[in-house]
Amino acid sequence: MNAARSTRWPVIVVVVLLALFTLAFVAVFVMASLDYGMESTTPHPDAERVDALLAAADPARGEALITQFDCFACHISAAGVGIAPPFEGVAERAETRRPPLSAAQYIYESIVDPVAYVVEGYAGSMPQNYDERLSDEQLGDLMAYLLTLH
Ligand code: HEC
Question: Which sign does the torsion angle of CA 88, 93, 97, 102 carry?
Answer without folding.
Answer: positive
